[in-house]
Amino acid sequence: MVTLKNSLSGDVYNLAPMLLGWRLVRAIKSKTLVGRIVETEAYDESDAASHSYRGRTPRADVMFGPPGRAYVYFTYGMHHCFNVVTGNAGQGAAVLIRAVEPIQGIEEMKINRGTNELTNLTNGPAKLCQAFGLNKTFNGHDLSKMPLLLEPGNKTATDEIVTSTRIGITKDSYRLWRFYIKDNAYVSRVMLR
DNA sequence: GGAACGATTGAT
DNA sequence: TCAATCGTTCCT
User: Fold this and answer.
1) CA of A179 vs C1' of B1, distance in Å?
2) In this predicted structure, what is the pLDDT of residue A69?
3) Over A74-130, what HEC string results?
4) Does residue A103 register a pLDDT over 80?
5) Protein residue minimizing CA–C1' distance to C10
6) Residue at shortest CA–C1' distance from C6
7) Which nucleotide shows the minimum CA-to-C1' distance to residue A58?
8) pLDDT tens for residues A114-171?
9) Closest CA to A94 of A128, A67, A74, A121
10) Does the nearest atom of strand B lie within 7 Å of A168's Cβ?
11) Which pTM does this prediction carry?
12) N or C: which end of chain A has fewer CB within 10 A?
């Protein structure tokens, strides 16, 4: 039997591109929100940019736990970011979900984000958390259970995967561990640094 | 106890 | 280009 846990037990730099096309499903207030993952980044403990680089600190503890859990952290004093924990227990690795394409529950996302602009709802790691109502209460949540599911999905025949450096980091910035679907309108805006 | 620094975003 | 804003981690 293929379980979510088994699907996510490999190396994070292989799993990050694999997750493109998968779906994030969120049940909230009798509504169902669905997004299709279009942009990801890999982080692991050999990587100075990763929260797991310093070892099993309180914040990064979930990254060292079993795969298929959510790692949600609070940053810049105001934003949340959502990751999917990968690798075997004991390894500190996770995939940052940087952007999804809104599929279902778009009106609810607009309310949560305070904008009607479709391409500004979920095109960034903190934006999609706001749209989906994700916060630290989801840290450690098993993504095979409601109210937040990660479901396998497919890339379309025309989807091309692009690899690049990661966004917004200063350490180990040479790693080509960012992956996104080429020409997708919901990929995050590239920030200059 | 103190301080530096963000896996970001939105306004200027 | 820059301010907002505070939890995490490390240093003294």
Assistant:
1) 42
2) 98
3) EECCCEEEEEEECCCCCCCCEEEEEEEEEEECHHHHHHHHCCCCHHHCCCCHHHHHH
4) yes
5) A54
6) A77
7) C8
8) 999 999 999 999 999 999 999 999 999 999 999 999 999 988 888 999 999 999 999 9
9) A67
10) yes
11) 0.97
12) N
